[in-house]
Amino acid sequence: MTDKVGFVGVGRMGANMARRLKDRGFPVVALYDVNVAAAESLATELGAQACTSLSDVTALSDVVITVVSDDAAMRAIFFGPGDNLLVGATDRLFINCATLTPGIHQALEHAAQAVGARTLEACMASSITQAREGTLYLICGGDPLVFEQAKPVLDSLSASQRFVGPAGDAAKVKALVNMVMNMNTAALAEGLALGDALGLDLAVLREVFAQTGANSRVLQTDADDMQNRDYDCFFSAAHAAKDAGIAVQLGREAGLVLPLADATWQQYQRLVTAGMGEIDKSGIAELTFKGRLGADHPAPAH
Length: 302
Hints:
Layout: E1 5-8, H1 12-23, E2 28-32, H2 36-46, E3 49-50, H3 54-60, E4 63-66, H4 71-79, E5 93-96, H5 102-114, E6 118-124, H6 128-133, E7 136-142, H7 144-149, H8 151-157, E8 158-165, H9 169-197, H10 202-210, H11 217-228, H12 237-253, H13 259-273
Parallel strand pairs: 1-2, 1-4, 2-3, 4-5, 5-6, 7-8
Antiparallel strand pairs: 6-7
Helix pairs in contact: 9-11, 9-12, 9-13, 10-11, 12-13
């Protein structure tokens, strides 16, 4: 395990991935984040360098893992004027883990190849706990040879990986994963809210859901939080809104009408507009239960 690893983006996911690789014997040498204090704190913890420039991360690392928020952040770190990760990037491997549009991954692969670097999509279909434990499920896309070259790092971060095709395909698959997950979350919030409004015992209702066609992974992870209004963040409403928007746009580009996906996107946008973008996605229940946020932030009239 001689590859030196750098991270760009050390929020909830990136920081725990860095800790995991350090535990597995990888030299985690360079960290960068727009939140300088977060990078400095983690650098002290891991014995790494908190870099003030992106090109320093590239210079110090053999493998750079990026975990950023959106396409704009991705463009800034790879295509920003003057200082960016592609400066001096010959022979470097970039593993990009955020949920982004397919086009940004395709553009990055071409740009990296032009400077003698390699890129791989490794979209994460898991959360903070799995990042720390090294049990992520990774949806990978790009060059199959690069995927094989990245396996030592990927194996240390994940319980399983699925290579799905060329650059951009992993982003498409991840958009659909999150589209269905977010729709399930919104539907569960409505089901529990209606049950509550009808005077039903929600513990009994949840038990019935779990034994019938209403069961889902979201029921297991989010129902208790929705009922008890416990929205400690594992996957933020803002990220849910961003990812829902990606799926809706992909549908439009494919010539499809996706009314459920569009309605879910609108619900998460309402939550963000209400100033609750940083709570967990299960907080969408605030828009459906009587007496909660929804009364103050009604849905648009149809």
